[in-house]
Amino acid sequence: MSASQPPSSFFVGLDADGAGAHPAAAAVARLAGADLVSGARLARTVRQAENAGLTFVSFTDALLPAVPGSPASARLESVTRAAFVSRTTTAIGLVPQVPTTYPEPFHVAAQLASLDIAAAGRAGWIPGVTRDAATADAYGRPVVGDVTREARDVVRVVRDLWDSWEDDAVIRDVATGRYVDRDRIHHVDFEGETFSVKGPLITPRPPQGQLVVLAADGDVPPALDGTGAGDRPGGAEPLVDVTLVGGAGVGAARGNAEAAREHSPLVGVDLEVVLDAGGRTGADRLAVLDASTPVGVRSPWDTRALRWAGDAAGLVALLTELATPGPDGRRPVDGVRLLPAVLDVDLPVLARDVLPALRAARLTAVPRPGATLRESLGLPRPANRYDTRVLADAPNA
Amino acid sequence: MTDLPATDLPVTRPDAQVHFGVFFQGVNHTTIWSDPESGSQTDFATFERVIRAAERGLFDAFFLGEGLRLRESRGALHDLDVVGRPDAITQLAALAAITTHIGLVATQNTTYNDPADLARRLQSLDVLSGGRAAWNVVTTDNAWTGANFRRGGYLDHALRYERAQGQLDVARQIWDAFPDTGGNGAVAHVSEHSALFDVELDPTTPRSPQGHPIIFQAGDSPQGRDFAAANADVIFSRHGSVLAEALEFAADIRRRAVAAGRPEDDVKIFPGTGVIVGDTPADAEEKARWVRWNQVTPATALSIVGNIWGEDLSGYDPDGPLPAHDPVVEELGGERGSATTGARTREIAARWRALAQAEHLSIRELVVRNSSERGFQGTPAAVAEDLIRWVRTGAVDGFNISPWIVPSGLDDIVDRVVPELQERGAYPTSYTGTTLREHLGLRAPLTRRASAVGAA
Question: Could you read off the pLDDT of B233-275 as tens digits, one per residue?
């Protein structure tokens, strides 16, 4: 193995939300209501993604619909969706987006830990932020002004709660009648700026110890800073494992990635794709989609991400550029998350013409059945922040 | 109460069928974890084995409990019982994908959930499972549990059912917002403003084949019974051991249902209970005794008595007598997260002491005797006869069984009791519907009742 060999393969994730990432995807695919969100459709889509060799699927989510009143804006809650496909798949990572701004952090921590248990260690989390006032009204609470601070506190306490049970807390000691060792289960006593959480979690530590946290650049402070951060358990650890950056072009995306690398173990690029398909070019398809975008949609297609509209070969070339190590042995980015304009159209092209080419060039690898998402991404399983035995044995750890 | 022997009670529903649910991972010391046959209480494989056995046995429902803070005794985590469980909706969503018919019941708290999130997650489970979800509605008021949540202990005890009613009302608005399956209308906006709720939202979750989740409720107080009679499809009752008590409870619930403007059979009654079978009555008796003594370990016996006495009694001899002195505190408060908090300790202690003296019981014998909810025990045929009698006298509609051991605890019921019931024409031989609403024989959801009556 040469010194320039990258530590692990380039990851390729895919957002598997709804009919696709473009706001007009459901309209163009003629899907609405129960047909759009059925379990059968969800399981089929994720199975196709797993068969295509993708590293993970994400499930974009928001409490409120893109278009109020429209059945084409039907969407089910993301952890529930991810859990549903946890037992219909064996290798692919499952990464729900769950907002941090208004939901209860204690529930979010338990739901995600439970997802990781059901998925045998294949779960991740995209902690989202919610900036619109309408969502505050749905919860009957004042608008949160500083969503980044709120995201920081929620990610901190969720990570604390995942560690609140040590791995070997269940002892089943028949001689003393004790099912758990209470010294290995911890109150977290978290005091944030707007809330506090006592702990411990109701759910034991998830198989990965900590789920993989992926965050859009700027949504979550990647690590705690300021004095005293290193004094609290876990205070010196990053809050974000994988930062997802955008960029108007490849150069901008590479620059954003370079900046994000300083504080994030891994960096990926969010990449919107509209591929040539069905005798139409990606550009033509995009024009039709844009023209079909419903009136009153809350957000147009995200222009923060890098975008590819064109043929599969061009996408392979773009991904090859992003995945090929430079003279310093480092890749420009560690991976991508693909945002397909229309899942039913773009995913088959990805599976047939894009992912096999990347594998043939040995840039990507298919996740191994039974591997955790951390293993697929080359991330270590973290020690427990409350395990005093580790701290005593390895003071520099 | 009736003085008639159980066998002489009138059969009011000669064709009624027995129904089963399974309550996985019972709380407190129900689940024996010390036996070598006891599997992991956390691994998904354990849940999978139990739900597959239940579905093989044509059970209506698989039921998960919930507690939002781990139990503590006098400031220390209670360490003697099974603890640590998955989030119910998440776990049931995973189980939905590997099952095809069985209902999926999630216990969820009305105090420490926002309706926007809770109703959406429940409906998501209902849609993904093809109409098999249910919500077991539970209330909490204590600040001790609230310490895990944004608002802390914000809710006064007296308001807990008002909060529950509001939570359910908003949930129904959210579930009813989409047009019925096949309809093309717009999605309705939800707006609710009251003392306890301010909600303005546009839902995203379509209706399921059964409309929306079934409502379970387990309250036993007069307030809890009224809430159930007005709102619930199924009551998860406590009266699963003494037939006369179950009949009285059923009559009370029917009265309250009619008073709430519903048909008297609109609320199905499923007591929590246990089933122990043996080849002979003596075998079953011996097994039941073994189960009870393994549920109440020496440490558990001392812990239970210690919670009444308000002190650590772990230095006492579990095979010796109760403490000679009275409890040190008037009211239970040291133990958190259990249903008996707030009870009068000296009254309980006096009752226990009288019983122990009359029957010459040690601490452990006393606790075994107190916790020996007998449930149903005997040969498979005898148990089947008992279950049929309970259903056909109108005492219950089904049974929610807590296995004393997992994952194998349902096997005896599925493999030995169910065939006896089927031979007697008192149990289905296949699922006849695909939704939980169909399994339970329920009418249309309460909010769609008028149109359903018109269509019938």
Answer: 999 998 998 999 999 999 999 999 999 999 999 999 999 999 9
User: Does residue B380 carry a pLDDT above 70?
Assistant: yes
Distance from CA of B223 to the nearest CA of A (A): 27
Q: Which residues contact A246 (CB under 8 A, 6 or more apart)?
A: A216, A217, A253, A256, A269, A270, A302, A304, A305, A306
Q: What is the CATH number of the domain that holds A383?
A: 3.20.20.30
- The H or E element containing residue B376 is strand B376-378
A264, A267, A270, A273: CA torsion to nearest 10 = -170
pLDDT band, very low/low/confident/very high, at A229 (cuts 50, 70, 90):
low
Q: How far apart are CA B88 and CA B108, in angstroms?
A: 8
Q: Distance from A169 to chain B by nearest Cα, in Å?
A: 10
Distance (Å, rounded) from C-alpha A211 to C-alpha A219? 18
Q: Do the domain assignments include residue A143?
A: no
pTM across the whole model: 0.95
Burial (CB count <10 Å: 0-12, 13-18, 19+), residue B353: middle
- Nearest residue to B48 (alpha-carbon basis) of A53, B56, A333: B56
CB distance A73–B112 less than 8 Å?
Answer: no
Residue A133 CA, chain-centre distance (Å), reads 24
CA–CA separation, B175 and B169 (whole Å)? 10
**At residue A187, what is the residue type?**
H
> In terms of Cα–Cα distance, which of A114, A118, A55, A57 is closest to A87?
A118
| Angstrom distance (rounded) from CA A203 to CA B62 | 19
The CATH number of B16-279+374-455, from 2.40.110.10, 2.60.40.3880, 3.20.20.140, 3.20.20.30, is 3.20.20.30
* pLDDT for position B9: 85
- Residue in chain B lying closest to A86 (CA): B94
What are the extents of the domains in chain B? 16-279+374-455, 297-370
Average pLDDT, chain B: 91
Please name the amino acid found at residue A262: E
Query: In terms of Cα–Cα distance, which of B56, B48, B34 is closest to B413?
Result: B56
* Residue B12 structure tokens: 């009011």
Task: From chain A, pick out residues whose CB is under 8 angstroms from the CB of B81.
Answer: 179
Q: Kindly determine whether residue A182 and residue B76, on different chains, have CB atoms separated by under 8 Å.
A: yes
Could B187 and A68 be called an inter-chain contact, meaning their C-beta atoms sit closer than 8 Å?
Answer: yes
Give the Cβ contact number of residue B6 at 10 Å: 15
A393 has a pLDDT exceeding 60: no
Residue A395 has pLDDT above 60, yes or no: no
Q: Does B298 touch chain A (CB under 8 A)?
A: yes
What confidence tens digit (pLDDT) does each residue in B163-187 have?
A: 999 999 999 999 999 998 777 789 9
E strand or H helix that includes residue B234: strand B234-237
Under a CB-based contact definition with an 8 Å cutoff, are residues A57 and A95 in contact? yes
pLDDT tens digits, A22-58: 999 999 999 999 999 999 999 999 999 999 999 999 9
